[in-house]
Design goal:
Agglutinin, subunit A; nine-stranded antiparallel beta sheet; four-stranded antiparallel beta sheet; 224 residues; Hepatocyte Growth Factor; mainly beta; 2 helices
Length: 224
Amino acid sequence: MKKALAALSLLLTAAYASGAAAAGDQLIFEDYLFPGQQLVASGCYYRAIMQTDGNFVNYGGNRSRWASNTANAGGYAVMQTDGNFVIYNWADRAVWSTHTISHSPGASWLSMQSDGNLVMYEFNHGAVWSTRTAGEAVGQSPCQYKAEHTTVIVNADRPGSDYKVLIPNEARASWCGFFCAAETACKAYTYIPPTGAGKGECHLKNAVPSRVSRAGRVSGVKQF
């Protein structure tokens, strides 16, 4: 079991390092949901969206089936390397989580299933958390929902393709993710931290430049 778990962790780490993305119905470690971004089940009818009001909601069609109840408190959500799915506010403080610490880093993923159930899985341990909303698998065609999340990598830069530079109200990389998610033209971003008393810069990009290592910087890429 330890060997299999280690193998999965290495596989996911390799995918992460290469910039590979989870499917539109899944989040793997260090995948983020900023406001308006969502997981969409393969059948399209079910989805889980990080709403602009801070609430994370599982929908079937246009009907809410489950919610984190973090309206006016949450900001963005993260599938963490430790196996915990966490909603943070814009001060980067946790306001809700699944409380699912993994047995091994990178061995967990969140899945929006075609039966309407949003489930956290851990390799070799099966389902460890869910919204308990499993029902009839329903398809919807054509699909009116677009799956989107953001893969974020720390200590990374993506030089070039800047079309806009914004100054966040706080020296926080998460604000750059918010700005990018809000603009269709934005495909990627890099947060450059302040060198003094400033608040840093958000460089929004209309393409996805190659990634280079650079301490302190944080880069995100939208995944569709």
